[in-house]
């Protein structure tokens, strides 16, 4: 929109390139004589919530002055993270409008069950050991295997277990595309005997939801050789159902906001911030472990928060003016509005707090978890989802209360990320991260696993490459967030809202 006009007697003829990780991966078509082109070509990218995926768009790139491309004027370039595209708001002025998939776009999952009757006998000393092989037809007339059932031993009348398969895998979105099913007799040596085949389509299968559908299993060779050949048995569709599974992107594109809150450990075990041995110490050449962890996670997740305002708290310190111990004091010293502008604003307030509070103790997590849980409980319709980042150095002092807080929060639209910095042992943190055993408190079990813990020391790169280390840290701590958000939506039967048209 509103591109520069570089042609003397007409308007510009814009074309563009997309680049990723320093290399070009696609080029749009050229559209003549316009300053507001609508490019048609689509680019397909793999999307990972937990990674910073940077894109660059060139309008007639500067290197295109060559015999291959012809002489072309450079219009400009735009830099954007893929996460910003997913959660973007439309802008003003000269812009590059990045259009993306309409939302919501669920992935339909089919569950079906089949049985067979009077299949041909293939085993000399027994009956048959039948199984089914499903094939999706391709545009070029070939077939691709998309599913195999289990083998049912020694029967001519097998009943196979129900199975699920994505609709996309079955027919690639074309409901009338042929689905071929082969029936085989299993042999131990792998030379399975062909019993017969039949064909259908997704549309035909879906029509059979309310009634049994019987397919004749035909063997073309037998049909040619035997005049009285009828079939090699029948296969019956016993049940067929379809469910929609929405993706993380569907909810973000549908308007779900990720609200990012930070809680930082200000207990005395971190060491005096002015001393190089302190975990809070920031040299002129390097950020502290706390600041690095905050930037690594925050710079990715901030792309999904429209107002870029992040509540930020400290815990375990004596705070001015009265020197009382607090476990949820605002880093910006504003009790009424603890939000900071962007991750840089959080970092600025964090560094300012280090100069004004007295590091003390103990290490209590429950107050700040309950604080965020209270906010999350106010909006539970799927339009808001909260992510709390806790950065800490030590052993939890209020383990029982923290367990209780997490179990309560597990029923809310909320996730908790814990980054442990320093050399301490973090067995308690591992217990809170319910990957192996579901967290419980006073006989109550957490409804969902909402905690992800990682020790910062595992991501310190020996080469001193902070950028690489922090990218690995962010990837691991954020990897579970999409699934945790989806688990909340699914348990509440919340579907994504339809995004505003582009």
CATH topology of the largest domain, which one?
A: Rossmann fold
Q: How far apart lie the N and C ends?
A: 14 Å
State the helical fraction. 10-25%
What proportion strand?
25-35%
Q: How many strand units?
A: 24
Q: Could you state the CATH homologous superfamily of the largest domain?
A: von Willebrand factor, type A domain
Compute the number of structural domains. Answer: 3
Largest sheet: 7 strands, mixed
What's the pLDDT, averaged over the residues? 84
Describe this structure in words.
By secondary structure, the chain is α+β, with helices and mostly antiparallel strands. It has 3 domains: about 70 residues, no CATH class; about 140 residues, C2 domain (Immunoglobulin-like, Sandwich), CATH 2.60.40.150; about 240 residues, von Willebrand factor, type A domain (Rossmann fold). The protein contains 12 helices and 24 strands. Strands 13, 14, 17, 18, 20, 21 and 24 form a 7-stranded mixed beta sheet that branches. It has a 4-stranded antiparallel beta sheet with strand order 2-1-3-4. The longest helix has 15 residues. One of its GO terms (molecular function) is calcium-dependent phospholipid binding. It comes from Zonotrichia albicollis.
Topology overview:
Elements: E1 16-20, E2 23-27, E3 54-59, E4 76-81, H1 82-86, E5 107-117, E6 130-137, E7 143-148, E8 163-166, H2 167-171, E9 178-185, E10 193-201, H3 202-207, E11 213-216, H4 220-225, E12 234-245, H5 248-253, E13 257-265, H6 289-301, E14 309-315, E15 317-319, E16 324-326, E17 329-330, E18 339-341, H7 342-356, E19 358-359, H8 366-376, E20 384-392, H9 399-409, E21 414-420, H10 427-432, E22 440-441, E23 444-445, E24 451-455, H11 466-478, H12 481-491
Parallel strand pairs: 13-14, 13-20, 20-21, 21-24
Antiparallel strand pairs: 1-2, 1-3, 3-4, 5-8, 5-12, 6-7, 6-9, 9-10, 11-12, 14-17, 14-18, 15-16, 15-19, 22-23
């Amino acid at each position: 929109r509103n591109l520069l006009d570089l042609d003397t007697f007409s308007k510009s003829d814009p074309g563009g390139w997309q680049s990723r990780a320093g290399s070009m991966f696609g080029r749009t078509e050229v559209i003549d004589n316009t300053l507001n082109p609508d490019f048609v070509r689509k680019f397909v990218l793999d999307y990972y919530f937990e990674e910073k995926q940077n894109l660059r768009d060139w309008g007639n790139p500067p290197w295109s002055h060559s015999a291959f491309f012809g002489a072309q004027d450079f219009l400009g370039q735009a830099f954007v993270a893929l996460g910003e595209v997913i959660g973007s708001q439309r802008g003003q002025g000269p812009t590059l409008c990045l259009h993306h998939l309409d939302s919501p776009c669920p992935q339909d999952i089919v569950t079906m069950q089949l049985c067979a009757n009077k299949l041909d006998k293939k085993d000399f000393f027994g009956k048959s050991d039948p199984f089914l092989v499903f094939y999706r037809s391709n545009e070029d007339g070939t077939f691709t295997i998309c599913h195999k059932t289990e083998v049912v031993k020694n029967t001519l009348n097998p009943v196979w277990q129900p199975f699920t398969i994505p609709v996309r895998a079955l027919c690639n979105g074309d409901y009338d595309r042929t689905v071929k099913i082969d029936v085989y007799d299993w042999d131990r040596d792998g030379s399975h005997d062909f019993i017969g085949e039949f064909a259908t389509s997704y549309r035909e299968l879906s029509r059979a939801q309310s009634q049994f559908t019987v397919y004749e299993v035909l063997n073309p060779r037998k049909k040619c050789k035997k005049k009285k050949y009828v079939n090699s048995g029948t296969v019956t569709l016993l049940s067929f159902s379809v469910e929609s599974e929405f993706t993380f992107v569907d909810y973000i594109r549908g308007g779900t906001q990720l609200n990012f809150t930070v809680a930082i450990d200000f207990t005395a075990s971190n060491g005096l911030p002015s001393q190089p041995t302190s975990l809070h110490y920031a040299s002129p050449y390097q950020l502290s472990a706390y600041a690095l962890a905050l930037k690594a996670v925050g710079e990715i997740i901030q792309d999904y928060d429209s107002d870029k305002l992040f509540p930020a708290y400290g815990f375990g310190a004596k705070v001015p003016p009265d020197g009382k111990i607090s476990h949820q004091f605002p880093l910006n010293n504003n009790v009424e509005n603890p939000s900071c502008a962007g991750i840089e604003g959080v970092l600025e307030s964090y560094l300012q707090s280090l100069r004004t509070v007295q590091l003390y103790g103990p290490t209590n997590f429950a107050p700040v978890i309950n604080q965020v849980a209270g906010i999350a409980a106010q909006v539970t319709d799927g339009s808001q989802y909260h992510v709390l980042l806790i950065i800490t150095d030590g052993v939890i002092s209020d383990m029982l209360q923290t367990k209780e807080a997490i179990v309560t929060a597990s029923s809310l639209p909320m996730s908790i990320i814990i980054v442990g910095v320093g050399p301490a042992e973090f067995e308690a943190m591992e217990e809170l991260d319910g990957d192996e055993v579901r967290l419980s408190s006073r006989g109550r079990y957490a409804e969902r696993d909402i905690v992800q813990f990682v020790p910062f020391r595992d991501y310190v790169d020996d080469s001193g490459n902070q950028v690489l280390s922090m990218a690995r840290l962010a990837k691991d701590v954020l990897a579970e967030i999409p699934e945790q958000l989806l688990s909340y939506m699914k348990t509440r039967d919340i579907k994504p809202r339809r995004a505003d048209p582009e």
